[in-house]
Amino acid sequence: MSLRLGLVFAGILVAVAFPATARATAPLLDERAPDAEGDKRERAALLDLHVGDELFRDEHLPPLPGVVLSWVGTAGGVFLIPADKGLGITWTSTFAITAVANTAAAFGDEDAQVEEQQAIGFLPMGGMALGLAFADRQTLMPRLAPGGAGAGLVGFSALSALNMLLWRHAPIARLRADRARLRTPEQRAALSPAEVAQIERDFLTFERPIPGWALALPLLVGGSVSLIPAFERSSSAGDRGWSVCYGSVAFLLGIGIAVGAEYSPPNAYISDLQRVGLHLTPLASRDALGVSVSGEF
User: Fold this and answer.
1) Distance (Å) of CA 181 to CA 8, 48, 125, 162
2) In angstroms, what is the C-alpha Rg of the chain?
């Protein structure tokens, strides 16, 4: 009798304990795999926003006006040489470089035109300012005021040209086509994770290789040189005014370039992904940044 009661009691214990054990070993609701579809759509929505910003950043002017104006500036510099050799030679050389580059880019594709305009767009301004500094008759302002800003602009143009030579990016036309596939929620939902990842890779190649602070450095140094006459006791009020004008323009341009590069569309995209909980991971196919962003698809 006691044996039967013991077996019955043991059976009751097993029946009660087994469901409890099963419940304890079952996965909790909060430990499920992440929402892959939701992550994909969120990533695609961020791409739509920031790819649009990048396409806006890479808008360029029609090449023909730049070609005409740069050759006119070159001719004007040549005519100035007999009257003022320093001014004329400086203007002629910088405008001629710009004219040749503009003409060559005009026969290239959209990418070549964007790269050329971003490389030496400020070179004529730098040449004009340097020309005033090298003028044979320097009576309007101290040479340091236009010379510092002009040298800063020329140095910035040289670094920008190097930046464009080192830049390896997907064709702009392909990035524009990528964005056309991201415009509506329905289009984004129809994309596969692999397609979204490929768009991301195309987009991240648009980060320039030289950092913004390095590009801005010639302008900040040149602006500092331009401001020297403003602090000299022997300078006239007019000289101080020109010094502040040239120095401020160089400084503001340098700060704008440094800040703009720091918050470039690719960098802003990465920051937004981190904000929503997606993580940066190394990506071998990235040449520009060396890293890309991936989530759990």
Assistant:
1) 68, 9, 40, 33
2) 31
Of 110, 78, 83, nearest to 94 by C-alpha is 78
Q: What is the DSSP string of 224-255?
A: HHHTGGGG-TTS-HHHHHHHHHHHHHHHHHHH
In this structure, are residues 54 and 203 in contact, taking their beta carbons and an 8 Å threshold?
Answer: yes
- Taking the C-alpha atoms of residue 134 and residue 103, their distance in angstroms, rounded to an integer, is 27
Q: What is the pLDDT of residues 13-52, one digit of tens each?
A: 444 343 444 333 333 333 334 566 777 888 889 999 999 9
Contact 162, 210 (CB under 8 A): yes
Asked whether residue 136 carries a pLDDT value surpassing 90, the answer given is: no
Is the pTM here over 0.70, yes or no?
yes
pLDDT in tens, 225-234: 999 988 888 8
Q: Annotate 70-117 with DSSP letters as a single string.
A: HHHHHHHHHHHTTT-HHHHHHHHHHHHHHHHHHHHHHTS-HHHHHHHH
Share of residues in the chain with pLDDT > 90 (%): 58
Distances (CA, A) of 125 to 128, 149, 165, 241: 5, 9, 22, 19
The answer to whether residues 202 and 178 touch, using CB atoms and an 8 Å cutoff, is yes
Position 279 scores a pLDDT of 60
Please tell me the distance from the alpha carbon of residue 22 to that of residue 260, in angstroms, as a whole number: 57
Half-sphere exposure of 14 (CA within 13 A, CB side): 6
Helices (H) and strands (E) in the chain, counts: 13, 2
